[in-house]
Amino acid sequence: MPVNTASLVIGLSYASLLFLVSVGLSVVFGLMRFVNLATGSLYLIGGYIGWSVARSTGNFFLALIAGALAALVVGVLIERGFLQRLHRKELLQVCLTLGVAYIVQDVTRWIWGGDPLRLRPPELLRGSMELFGSVVPIYRVALIGIGALLAVLVWYLLERTKWGAYVRAGVDDLEMVQCLGINARRVFAIVFSLGALLCGLGGALGTPVTGVAPGTDIQLQLMALIVVVLGGLGSVTGAIVASIVVALVDTIVRTFWPEASFFAVWALAALVLIVRPQGLLGRAA
Amino acid sequence: MNAKSISAQWRPAAILGLLVLLLIAPFVLPTYPLSVLTEILIFTLFAMSLNILLGYAGLPSLGHSAFFGTGGYAVGLLAKYLGTPAPLALLIAVVAGIALALITGPFVLRTHGAYFLILTLSLTQVLFGIVWLWRRVTGGDDGLPGIPTPKLPFLLGRVSDTANFYYLTLIVVGIAIATIAWVVRSPFGLALVGIRENERYLEGLGYPTWTLKYVAYALAGGYGALAGGLFAYFKGFVGPGQISWLLAGEGMVMVILGGAGTFWGPAIGTILVLLLRYEVSAFTQRWVMILGIVFILTVLLLPQGIVRLPNRIREIRAQLRREAPLPRPTAPAHHTPSERAVERVIERS
Amino acid sequence: MAVPALQLEHVSKVIGGLTILEDISLTVQPGERRAIIGPNGAGKTTLLNVIAGFLPATRGRVLVFGRDVTKLPAHRRVDVGLLKTNQQPAVFHELTTRQNILIALLRGRHSPLGLGGLVERDREIQRLAEQVLEEWGLLDVSDVEVRHLPHGYQRRVELAARFALRPKLLLLDEPAAGLAVDEIPAFIERLKQLPRDMTVVLVEHSMRVVFSFADRITVLHHGAVLADGTPDEIQQNEDVQAAYLAGAMRGRDAGAA
């Protein structure tokens, strides 16, 4: 088996990115049954803005903030402008978010062109290091650390705070929460915005790894959907677990059958859904 | 006499007029617009087949391209390996589409709403993967080129090849659309609308809702595969792009743009999307953006589709005149939270 | 002794570890009007859903006219003449009144392959629908989408659709809910005109409706049968009074009485 430390690091760093992209989607999905097909676009925006800011200022940290904020702005626009009126209308949600995805793809292609752009990691994190006898890129290791940190943070926010309890209650039963006098709309808006923020951050963080190009949005969008259904809608723990599973399966299959990796992940998703329609850790729907 | 019966009165005349226009089109149109029209016919069938699921039964499928591609590959493989004549190949394509639906149906129909959407998408991606990777048979990402265009024998030599295939498409699509019309206006079609409205209520009236959905899924699969088979002949080629979920998404948009659950809506939506793609792309590179803007505007302004535009205008005008022809519905019956919770547990189980 | 219209034998229902119904047994004779009452959360609606087949019983058996229907799905129970109304009228909101009636009348004619001719050309069905609409005073609104109708009309559409299927055992889940107080007497009259050979099981909060209509009353409390008897017996029963009746009667009907 070609599973060594190096491929584990590559897989887990990819898992970090997947988690950032999918956790917002998952919670929003669980909360409002909202299908957001513009998630990948938010990643794209984060990536492109991050790239430009890093280019002009030379400051990677600033790039991360800019990327995250840009995605947040677009996310808030989507949420404010459209989403509230589309509650439980899956078809219209798909149509609308697909429209947003089209526009974002075209605008970014207009501004940044069609060639893949890659960002160099900040000086501190360039080069490689030795880990358990393998040589691995430092930036990948750092990504794992950041991803783990943010996962813990999100998990804590949702599982251990009062505000998180509202969200989880909303995932279980939205009307019930409204009966309790909690402003479900505001909770949803906050969750959606935070999700967008994480997406954009993921995009900026991922630029040194995945690069950013027209099509990155679709790729990430599909991966995020898989993570969400695998993990179970609305489950943070599920999103964490599924991100890791998906990224590792992808990485492992890639090492001995590169072409098949993408589909292996889909086959996994289809299989899980057939056996457990509610996902690995989701509750019965 | 109300508006509905007036339009019903004119319907035969309108359909006849449309048919005449479509019949004389090859004598009026140059080659290129005629091939666009051929494509519109094929995608109209695709969108109408999807509309059986989205619009009538209320099943939000994001995987309808699986059937389109299945039909295409059936035609492509038969042409490549067996040289099967077109009528038989198209028939086999339909059977293949129905078979795929019958196999996947029991799995996808366990889910509802957004879950249904994602499961249909997943299965389509798996099919895409199989086709992509099974290079020896399917040609992988190169697809299967060189599918010979079938021709109507009685028109050979009398019209151009483009016109010949156009007429063939017109006949096949025309017959298919007529049968779809028959299906959706039959008791079965009305029952599907009942499923869309409230599956449980329909079951309470003694309808086997699961079976109805299964049949609808199979029918949609068959028609979708027929469209895919025609498209493979049209292009002379079939490739993984014809299974791609992007195509499924585009089909969904065609249906919604035109008006989900209306008979002619998908046709209007198809015309709009394809014209945008071909015509707008001729004078601006930004047609993707324009398409996106059209999607969003539709959702915001005409969530029920372009076909319902006259109704919408009438509604707005009625509102402006402050007409209230009927009393407002009274507030729904009082429910305690616990009763509602139980009701919802029931809904879910 | 005639075969009972409805028999429940030790029916229990557990949802998510929560026992909603516990060991319920009851027998309803043909033609009987049975009311099921109880405080909120007693499990009345759940009980009707178990009888109608929307919820499977966790334990126990359900027999309708002597036939064991415990394992039958809801749509098959309609075959034995069992129909149910909903708290919110079970009507199709975006269909017209006529289409709602047609759907009921067309049950069984949809023949899974969709082959059954065109609805609008089926003269026989259209005539029947016209008849039903007239009978229920719905002709005026026959081409109005049901969502535009007031609650009382929606209820009428719901009942008309169910009667089109000739129920032998009718389950009514809070049919008077949502009616204005001054609509209730007329509603009671309507209930009393139901054909005598039809068995009716009624869940209702309005004690006026219950006591002027029911032959027998079953009282549910915390998912179990607390009492069972004629309206007089129930009114005398001290357990019932303590648990429910007094409070409910004071609370609900004081204004209307």
From TrEMBL, chain B:
This is Branched-chain amino acid ABC transporter permease. Pfam families: BPD_transp_2. It is a multi-pass membrane protein. GO terms for cellular component: plasma membrane. InterPro entries: ABC_transp_permease (IPR001851), LivM-like (IPR043428). It is found in: Cell membrane. Keywords: Cell membrane, Membrane, Transmembrane, Transmembrane helix. GO terms for molecular function: branched-chain amino acid transmembrane transporter activity. The keyword Transmembrane applies. Transmembrane segments: none annotated. It comes from Thermomicrobium roseum. The keyword NADP does not apply.
